[in-house]
Known about the structure:
The complex is a heterotrimer of chains A (79), B (225) and C (220).
Chain A: H1 3-12, H2 36-75
Chain B: H1 2-20, H2 22-42, H3 52-78, H4 81-87, H5 92-121, H6 130-155, H7 161-188, H8 194-223
Helix pairs in contact in B: 1-5, 2-3, 2-5, 3-5, 3-6, 3-7, 5-6, 5-8, 6-7, 6-8, 7-8
Chain C: H1 5-25, H2 39-66, H3 69-100, H4 109-130, H5 135-159, H6 175-218
Helix pairs in contact in C: 1-6, 2-3, 2-5, 2-6, 3-4, 3-6, 4-5
Amino acid sequence: MMLIPQLLLSLVLQPPPGQSEFVPVNELPVAERLPAAPFLICAYAFVWVAVMFYLWTIWRRLNKVEADLDALARKTPQR
Amino acid sequence: MFVRTAWLVLRKDFAIEVKSLEVLTTTLFFAISCVLIFAFAFVKNGQAPEDAAAGILWIAIAFSGTLALGRTFERERYSETLRALLLAPAPRPALYVGKLLGMLALLAVAELLLVPLIAFLFQAALFSRPLLLAAILAGGTVGFSAVGTLFAAMLVRARSRDVLLPILLYPITIPVIIGGVRGTAALLASPVDEPGAIMWIGILAAFDVVFVTLSLWTFEPLMTE
Amino acid sequence: MKKAFIPLLSVVAVMFVVAPFLIANAPYESTMGLIQKIFYYHVPSWFAMYLAIGVSGVASAIYLFKGTPIADAYANAGAEVAVVFGLCGLITGPLWGRVAWGVWWQWDVRLTTALLLELIFVAYLMVRRYGGPGAEKLAAATALFGTATAPFVYKSVDIWRTVHPQTSVIPTLKPSMGGPFAFSALAFLLLSTLLLTARVHLAKRQMMVDQLYLAHEDQP
């Protein structure tokens, strides 16, 4: 898996020293460019995971509340 | 009625404070400790970095302000005087303004001490443009105190109030603190950046208007149970 | 609101399946290349957050001044959804920035205030959880201040010169990029609405449970 060492390398890579202004990425020498694909995939994946996780927490809480409602509904008629 | 109520609240707080000077002295001492801690954290080779003075000044104001807010309203909670105030047939926003003015007075005294102290410890030319500095300090302090007074009053009856006040207060007032720091830093720059400072005073004024308006608007429903 | 859930879910699901094809077909941006495609998730995430913040703010104002419990449910839902999408924005942004700018984070005004906005709504959730009885009103006030800060965050990038692109980028997009962007934005806004709907449904069921418990206790 080439992606993992590339990603680790990108975490360690510092911005080039003495860069005092914004240099567009396509003007940087090829060796200094970070591989874009892992970052893009991470970004998209994170959004998906976050939204799914939130929906899952709602679903979990809803199940609990519905269980409570059922328990209460069963209790109330027996008076 | 409004002005009279605010004035009475302010006088009451002042009268109570003058007896023991508890909040004033503890706040001042805490502010000085803050300055020292940050000074030691940033000093290298016997000198603090250049822009540190502006940052340290505002951190000291923010932290000691939070402490003072907590202490002032703790006093209200302890004697249940806040409920008594709310029961009085006085316009609620006037109570808020009275409390706000008290807080401003307290922080003004703290700043009177902090500014010369920081100018002395960091050789910062804070007094080169005293009027602009006063405007920046006023703008930042009003913004911070407006939000702080509202939230501290709100939290009097809440659980975990001591830790919730900073959690609520800092994210909302950090733009004001940033304005204060950048404005003060503009005054400390080598050729004094007057247009920059004036711009920041304008931004602080805008924040103050928004925050005071929002606070006045929400104070009444928040204090009603 | 509940009836809208299934159709809304279907629409959103379809949109998110279609989106990758549209995004892949969009042209590359000239200076940034592939990484710029994070834009199609990054900006819509923040749009979704602003929608949730708007809902939370309006509902908080209604709750503070009218006391309607359902308004409180919307305010809470809005804050939760805002935190979720804000987190998406705060993660996708630095991932893009690391490649495009060379740094994960910059303390420029847009990034700093966006982080603060997220923190304000996290504080909202903490107040609701740890504030004890009556915390809903405190939280509502927090949401109001957060909602007041949001326009400032949005406009900050136009007022100050920052490393972050300006808002003028969006209206001036070429149609080949503008099309996928509008599609993604719509998808995220609908997703935000979907999440809000689901969360409010949960809150309503919870309120029903609470009412039943109280009624139950009142019985001899």
